[in-house]
Specification:
With 768 residues, this protein is mostly beta strands. The protein contains 3 helices and 59 strands. Among the domains are: 55-293, YVTN repeat-like/Quinoprotein amine dehydrogenase (Methylamine Dehydrogenase, Chain H); 311-409, Immunoglobulins (Immunoglobulin-like, Sandwich); 637-740, TM1070-like (Hypothetical Protein Tm1070, Chain: A, Sandwich), CATH 2.60.290.
Length: 768
Amino acid sequence: MPTAGSYPVGIIIGPDGAIWFAEEYGNNLGRLDLATLKITEYPTAWTRPDNFGRPYTPSPYKLTIGPDSNLWLTARNSNQLASFNLSTKTFTAFDLPGPVSLSGGGNPAGVVTGPDHNLWIAQAGMNQVLKVAPATGAVTAFPLPTPAAAPEGIIAGPDGNLWFTETGNTDYQRDFSFGPGGKIGRITPAGVITEFDTPTAGSGPYDITNGPDGALWFSEWARNGPNAPGKIGRVTTGGAMKEYWLPRITNLGTKGIVTGPDNNLWFAEGLDERVGQLKPSGSPCPPPPATPSTNPAPPLTYAVADAARSTVTATPGAAPMIQDLKSIITVTLKNAGGRPVSGKTVRLAKIAGSGTPDISDPSGTSDSAGVVTFKVDMPSWMQPGTDTFQATDTSDNVTITQTVNVTFFPSNYQLYLPALSNGAYGGYVTSAQIQNSGTSSGSVYLEYLNDQGGIDLPADARAGMAPNAGFIARQDRGGGLKPGEAGSGIVYSDQPIAGFVNEFAPGGSGDGSSYSAVIPTVGNGSTLYAPTIVNHAYGGYTTGLGLFTNCSYCALEATISYRDQGGAVVKTQSVEVVGYLGVYSGDPAVGLPAGFIGTATITVNSQSGGSLSGIVNEVGPNGQFSSYNAVVAGSSAVNAPVALRNAYGGYNTGMAIQNTTANAGSVTLTYYSGTGAVAATRNLAIGAYGYQGVYQGTDIPADGAYTARITASSGIAIAAIVNEVTPPSASGARQSTSYTTFASGSSTVHLALVESAGSDGWSTGEGI
């Protein structure tokens, strides 16, 4: 194959006389020219997002010739049916019902053209047979009577009906994970289903074909006993069933089956790596001894691990020198045929490097997938550097050829990420963006903390990051946060770092938001101020707090004081922060009145001790989504780099100002043009602990982009944030963003992500 590791699965003779095949792992449709033996690959180069916006490649699986004389294939990973036009060499994909992904997805398997000129699909993951109109992609689903039947193969039978297999295998990542399946199904073009039990329970019928004798023949994938061979089955169109033993004890994993040009049945033995022939007219093989063949089949184990085929990986490949911040080393044992080897004792050892890493348990046993995991970390008093690890199958004295490196580095610098999400709160997903702002190559490690204060593994990390290079860790790409979980994070590095967090709305569409990573010495304290807290105000805006404490496995008690615009306390709330806490302003348990507009002050209780950092999210009535950082202290003056009145095609800003003191006073807003000239000023009274909201669409007399400086009168201090909204789209949807104002400027600032139509479709702009 031109593409290594392509894993070709489905194969047919096409209408052009060539051999066509599906490359499940290579994501190609392949063509073999029989005259030249040349292979041409046509990439299935599209993706389909799941419910969290994660893209899934198609993974083409089974093929058929459609009623339009084009090729049709099932896309197992993206849960689609696709056609391939032989003239234009182009694909057209149709979404199928059910979720996306291989594990727990819709998993369309066999596909065939029916006598009614529709495409018929065995959809294993949804336990149903589908009828698809080739012209429109319209789908009709026919659920199977047997739960968890997992249909796989399907064929148009000689009686004008569709016949299919029910494997009972509901775990598509593993072979031989069979439930109570073991049936052959028949469905009429009108959708009437009849099921026929195989004589052997749990036989795992896999593929099915029309035999030379007018019956249908099928392979049985499952094992029939610890010392028994496999079987081939035969079913008549009336449902009469018979099974035939295969001759060899090691006949296992029988899958593909077809009638050959010699009118015999030909079948593939996946685990045995053989092709078999069955003559319908010949004498059947005798059964094996009765007693062992009737015993339940135990979990399969496979001989001896192969040193070259087995793998070792580290997730992640770097870790700070802090005990309990670990890298997970995964060893996968495979035999010479690439199958998993279970039940073996595996030891992990450091074989090179200057450090003395701790391996939590250096010995483990490979599971049914051939996998055993180890956790390694390095205490702070040890030597930093890169260490090399190697695994040995001590049961068979096989040392795995592949080794893996883990870089351990001193945690000189940290950033706090108060709110991270992997599909929590209805589907919100975050992405951490970290920049090496130092002058030397460095490593970064993102530790995940859950709402119990515990560490969620695996972490995300990167070693050898060049100065000014960036590292992106999306929280839905297999890191420590589980699907549907929210938490917080700490970023460690041996070099100075800058960072922020992107936040994406459910489905990956609509508005997005972001907030700056918190520098512990600047944005972490015993008191936090949130200049804007709302509950269904301004036409439907509501906020939520994300609070973080770096106190692992311990509780920090705090009080949230919600104040109205005049500074009066409307509600107090006692909270316990254990790692991460999310507080939604619209939650009835919080008790804020509908239409509330005001501020919040979060104070750590004196007897609790410790410190907090936090961010505030705000969602609007037309899909708006924005975020800003909570402030640890008020200032006598703050700067807003962007203030807009109907600028850049209709963008406007508004500002929320919070008096952080018990004294009443006033604030002065001065707006400056791009040349630094004063464009407008405004003076406002503000009460003790009070709030003022100002809108630049009315404050500034002329359209354009400006900056602003907000100055507090003597005796008070302020915190302020800026909201920005876009003009409405044709659909009525709007976007918004927010940022926290700055008490002082810097000689250098770092932008952890800038984009021009980047991979996520966004572009950035800077206001200085």
